[in-house]
């Protein structure tokens, strides 16, 4: 299998190559991460959450009003649970560092909007997989 898939991850009993693009925004798109210090704090928080949840952050960008992550995690974890861990954990830890932000009425006590965007990606596109299946040797 390792001859046909690049950058696969080997675990006991299975091999996977999952990559997810995850984006979520602050509540009301309020610009929360407007200084290098605030960006660094959120970056550290997200890195800690990833480590605790066996998630690999392949790329991260904390913007003033949203976050982009390129992630990989084991197939045993549900994507929705990974999102909950990042959003819930990061809001709690960020507000512990900055209770003054939580106290602002604009936030309503929430750091993040309840919605998010997540897409999957890999090293092969849909057409490549369709062609591989259609042209695979019969046993």
From TrEMBL:
Extract the InterPro entries matched here: Transposase_17, Transposase_17_sf
Q: What is a single molecular function from GO for this protein?
A: transposase activity
Q: Which GO terms describe its biological process?
A: DNA transposition
UniProt cross-references to Gene3D superfamilies, sorted A to Z: Transposase IS200-like
Q: What top-level branch of life does the organism fall under?
A: Bacteria
Q: Which residues form the Transposase IS200-like domain?
A: 15-136
Entry-linked SMART domains:
Y1_Tnp
Instruction: Please identify the protein, giving its name as recorded.
Output: Transposase
Q: Which organism is it from?
A: Levilactobacillus koreensis
């Amino acid at each position: 299998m390792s001859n046909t898939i690049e950058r696969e991850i080997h675990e006991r009993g299975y091999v996977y190559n999952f990559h997810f693009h995850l984006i979520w925004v602050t509540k009301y798109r309020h610009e929360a991460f407007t200084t290098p210090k605030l960006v660094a704090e959120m970056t550290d928080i997200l890195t800690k959450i990833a480590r605790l949840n066996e998630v690999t952050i392949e790329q991260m960008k904390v913007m003033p009003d949203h976050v982009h992550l390129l992630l990989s995690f084991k197939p045993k974890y549900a994507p929705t649970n990974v999102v909950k861990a990042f959003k819930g954990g990061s809001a709690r830890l960020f507000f512990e560092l900055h209770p003054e932000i939580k106290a602002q009425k604009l936030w309503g006590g929430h750091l993040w909007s309840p919605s998010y965007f997540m897409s999957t990606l890999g090293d092969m596109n849909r057409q490549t997989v369709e062609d591989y299946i259609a042209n695979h040797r019969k046993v």
